Amino acid sequence: MNKDLEEVALQFRKLPGIGVKSARRLAYFMLERPQEEVDLFLDTIRHARSRVCYCSTCCNLATSDPCDICSDDRRDHSIICVVEQPQDVTAMEQSQEYHGLYHVLHGVLSPLDGIGPEQLKIKELLKRLEKNDVKEVIIATDPDTEGEATAYYLSRLIKPSGIKVTRIGRGIPAGGAVGYTDGITLAGAVENRKEI
Asked: Long-range contacts: 62-68, Cβ < 8 Å, 24+?
């Protein structure tokens, strides 16, 4: 394989979820594109990267500080939804069901990977809770081992302040079948059941 092609593939491998084959496929694709398309692609990334910053309030990626969500007076400022990553904010917003504020941790506790509370935006969250009239914190970390550990850790830090701490519900996804659902998801579905 061409050395330049391998160098491009190596850069694509740095992206999350991209393995060796996908990286090579992307490298071939980009190097076969007309120069104008490649230039536009690179310029778009450069332009976006030069404008993006972190919101000093919620730690989300933004193009202004504070971000559009934090500065929106129509949102409920008494509720903060804590998420792992910026893309989780996008997912929550697409649901169109949540109208409060957010706080992005930029990861979860993972001692095996060397990620402790100091590597996350937990200190920033606690400062927000001291300053503002927050009544509820919704913890929306993933329902995996690290996400659950992070949720438990945060709830232990926040509850003594008298702020209500809740966890997003878990269960069988829409269109899912009980017979094909894993045990952990089923346990969450039973635990979070509602009266009908």
From this structure: none
Q: How far is the CA of 87 from the CAs of 60, 80, 134, in angstroms?
A: 9, 16, 23
pLDDT in tens, 14-60: 999 999 999 999 999 999 999 999 999 999 999 999 999 999 999 99
- Grouping H, G, I as helix, E, B as strand and the rest as coil, residue 37 is helix
CA–CA separation, 75 vs 48, rounded Å? 26
DSSP-assigned letters across all residues of 109-171? -BGGGTB-GGGTTHHHHHHHHHHS---EEEE---SSHHHHHHHHHHHHHHGGGT-EEEE----
**Under 8 Å CB-to-CB from 25, ≥6 apart: which residues?**
none
Tell me how crowded residue 39 is: count the other CB atoms within 10 A of its CB: 11
pTM greater than 0.85 (yes/no): no
- Neighbouring CB atoms inside 10 A of 56's CB total 12
Q: Where in the chain is the domain with CATH 1.10.8.420?
A: 3-51
CATH class of 3-51: mainly alpha
Query: Which amino acid belongs to residue 22?
Result: S
- Report whether the peptide linkage leading into residue 66 is cis, meaning its omega lies within 30 degrees of zero: yes
Q: Round the CA-based radius of gyration of the chain to a whole number and report it.
A: 21
Architecture label for domain 74-167: 3-Layer(aba) Sandwich (3.40)
For the record, the structure tokens of 65 come out as 């500080």
